[in-house]
Design goal:
Elements: H1 3-7, H2 15-39, H3 45-57, H4 64-70, H5 78-87, E1 91-95, E2 103-107, H6 109-123, H7 134-148
């Protein structure tokens, strides 16, 4: 099925408009698939992203700024996400000994366990790209990078 059938629109003003709508539609398609998986683990996509960042830092702590820099969704409020994860006991927050305004965030054992349990399902997202050849995936990556330049 093409974008025309998916959104019941026969014509587009230009191929560029069609491509933009296609990217937005595909983005929402992927977000919805991911949200279903993460919801089954009691977390959001953004919380999952923060947990992955913290696991990458483990056993070292991370700052809120480091988390913000690495987050996929730049519009997310990292401080609130971390607080929600803390309440779920998936991360720990401690004040820095050096700078009382700075906070050190670490993933907890429960957070690591949750990621380990969700890794297999998260790997299934790669299957969404299986209908593309390696060359097509490489071209897609190049084109998406080129759009953001």
């Amino acid at each position: 099925m093409g974008i025309e059938e998916d959104i019941k629109q026969e014509q587009f003003e230009t191929e560029r408009q069609k491509a933009l709508i296609n990217i937005l539609y595909t983005h929402n398609f992927l977000i919805n698939k991911m949200s279903i998986v993460f919801k089954s683990h009691g977390i959001t996509r953004q919380q999952y992203n923060v947990l992955r960042i913290l696991r990458g830092q483990y056993p070292n702590p991370a700052s809120i700024n480091l988390i913000k820099e690495r987050m996929l969704d730049k519009m997310s409020d990292a401080s609130r996400i971390v607080e929600r994860l803390r309440r779920k006991e998936l991360v720990t927050r401690t004040q820095s000994d050096i700078d009382k305004r700075a906070v050190k965030i670490c993933i907890s054992e429960q957070g690591l366990d949750l990621l380990n349990k969700s890794d297999a399902k998260a790997q299934s997202f790669n299957e969404l790209m299986e209908n593309l050849s390696e060359e097509e995936v490489s071209t897609l990556n190049e084109l998406l990078d080129k759009i953001r330049r």
